[in-house]
User: What shape does this take?
Amino acid sequence: MRRLDPTAKFFALLALTFEVAIQHNALFNLILVLLCLVALLISRVNLKTLGLLLIPSLMAALGMFFTGYRFSAGSNMPVRDSILAVGTSPLINGITLASHVLAYAGLGFVFALTTDRVQLIRSARCHLHIPQVFAYGLLAAWGIFPRMLLEYRRARAAFRARGIRTFPVSPALLKPLLVKSVRWSESLSVAMESRGFSGQAERTEYGYSRFSAGDWAFVVACCLIVPAALAVL
Assistant: This one.
């Protein structure tokens, strides 16, 4: 999954997302979730990060299960004709809604955890022709973000050393971080302008991204083969 072009991967997974949205087959959704987990394991993602991300997804799926179970098509609730009623059995209805949440989460994890940020911007710049200013701004913001996290941890440690307790989103922590972020962005802007970065000038690309045969095969598989498998199911 890491070798796929980010733009091709994005549109292929987006097509799968629409396919999940227009159908109500719990078996299809669960198979898709299993395939996403296999793809993540093959791509050697950080299991700790994956486990932390799965916790809110599982909680949301559990909530949707009980919601679908309570408001099923066969219940006597006044909302029995609601959009939440997609099955005739309360259990099937709950599993179907929960599987939708897991399928959406699995597709999102596949893209987020197997895509390099720099390669994503480079691919979007080559294939989608996004403005240069937008591309440079995203790369600059991603470069500053690690420094923001480090500064946030230093500020919390400084307050603890002085015996001052602060909660994670305390204004005492966020105000100095905001001021330093503005200073960093101004310094970065001046540095880029002094080195000839401009949004209006025509520039050549250091590395041009191209679609390979594997990228096209993945897009075709997600757009054609999966709907065929859904029809069989």
